[in-house]
Specification:
This protein is mainly beta. Helices cover about 10% and strands about 50% of the residues.
């Protein structure tokens, strides 16, 4: 009898943990082009919770400033806007990618080196913080293809 109750409690508990998750995946930041004031970061941010979550800021080691930006179309022109915050619906994923949402990276404290891993912190309006790891990719690599192996002929 006791064992059966224990199983029920554990399964409910693990479900509530899964329901509170926000995950960061495929997180890449591009090396700074020499002389360029900024670079970009792309990732997927999945909200597995039952509440909308509001991303208020992102910090990445070695970078002085990180801003959330989006490309918007206005009168047939693409322009970039800085977002002070970004709402992510419950059970939705925000895709940060070329031509859409992305991070703008400024003021590197030291050179970003291709292949290195950088710790990142995502801050939410609810007080929640989520940690992620960003991989630095080369200037010439398209970020979307960073996970594929290149073959030399």
């Amino acid at each position: 009898m006791f064992k059966r109750y224990l199983v029920i409690i554990i399964s409910v508990f693990s479900f509530s943990l899964a329901a509170n998750q926000i995950t960061v995946s495929d997180f890449t930041v591009r090396e700074f082009i020499p002389g360029a004031p900024s670079s970009v970061g792309y990732f997927q941010l999945a909200n597995h919770t039952n509440q909308d979550q509001v991303l208020t800021s992102v910090s990445i080691e070695k970078l002085g400033r990180v801003e959330i930006h989006n490309h918007v179309q206005k009168n047939g022109m693409m322009s970039m806007v800085k977002l002070e915050k970004l709402a992510i619906d419950a059970h939705a994923t925000a895709m940060f990618q070329s031509g859409g949402l992305h991070l703008m990276l400024f003021s590197p404290k030291s050179k970003l080196i291709k292949g290195e891993s950088l710790s990142a912190t995502f801050n939410f309006a609810s007080g929640l913080t989520v940690n992620g790891k960003a991989t630095v990719v080369g200037i010439n690599e398209s970020v979307e293809n960073a996970h594929q192996h290149h073959h030399h002929h």
